[in-house]
Amino acid sequence: MQRVKLSDQIAEQLEGMIADGTLKPGERLPAERQLSERLGISRPSLREAIQKLASKGLLNTRQGGGTFVAESLTTSFSDPLLALLKDQADAEFDTLEVRKELEGVAAFNAALRATDADRERIWSRYNAMAEVHRSDAASLDKLKADAGFHMAVIESAHNVVLLHFMHAVQDVLETAINSYLDQFYASPKFVEVLCRQHKAMVTTIMDRDPDAARDAAKHHLEFAYESFREFQNQARLARNSRLYSSIFDDRGAD
């Protein structure tokens, strides 16, 4: 029987940690000397393992700057959807429909599977998000805090396929909804509704009630879906009104 090279074993272990979200996009690995000592392997074997993962696009090594998990692990999946959004005006709403169902599954499983560390992270991300939402921070910062909370729930479901699907879906939505962000976070009353809905997700997960967690997540995403649809309609009416004015603004001179 052929023996598996030590570098291949280490590469497989690190790849598994990237796949299940233990090692997160953009995270820096310890320095080579420290990592080799902790893994109990030689530095040449570690370098070989890192080179193997780098060739797969999973790690990036920066000269003098260390080794990082690749930021865009879902590019090959999300790029076709991003291209679709450029040609199909309503494709973001199809994406929201998919996200609603997937996030319902994520919340359901998070209620069943979340570890103590997961639960602490969900609370922490929720509190950070609520603070940012109620502040005068830029809309993009609020979106990032929102996405961070949702990703904490998704990671707590401990489903590798779901995790990577949801990374791709979030990438697509962040690209699609940028034009609505200022409207989305403009009203304090609206933001309070969002915070209450997010807290309902947290509470049901902490109560380990999977059915209620799924329902809370789907209710929140349905609300987001309807809100974005309304914002799109408002934007279209405003655009048409401006066009109308530009066409007829000089008719009084006739």
How would you describe the overall organization of this protein?
- The protein is mainly α and 254 residues long.
- It has helices at 6-19, 32-39, 43-55, 75-87, 91-113, 116-133, 139-155, 160-176, 181-184, 188-206, 210-248; strands at residues 59-62, 66-69.
- A two-stranded antiparallel sheet has the order 1-2.
- A hairpin with a 3-residue loop joins strand 1 (59-62) and strand 2.
- The N and C termini lie far apart (93 Å).
Name some characteristics of this structure:
single chain, 254 residues, mainly alpha, two-stranded antiparallel sheet, 73% helix, 3% strand, globular
> Structural class, please?
mainly alpha
**DSSP E strands, number:** 2
Radius of gyration: 22 Å
* Percent range for β-strand residues: under 5%
Q: Could you state the order of secondary-structure elements as H and E? A: HHHEEHHHHHHHH
Task: Output the strand order for the largest sheet.
Answer: 1-2
Shape by Cα distribution: globular
Q: How much helix, percentage-wise, in residues?
A: over 70%
Tally of DSSP helical segments: 11
Average pLDDT for all residues: 82
Which regions have little confidence, pLDDT < 50, spanning 5+ residues? none
Distance between the termini: 93 Å
Largest sheet: 2 strands, antiparallel
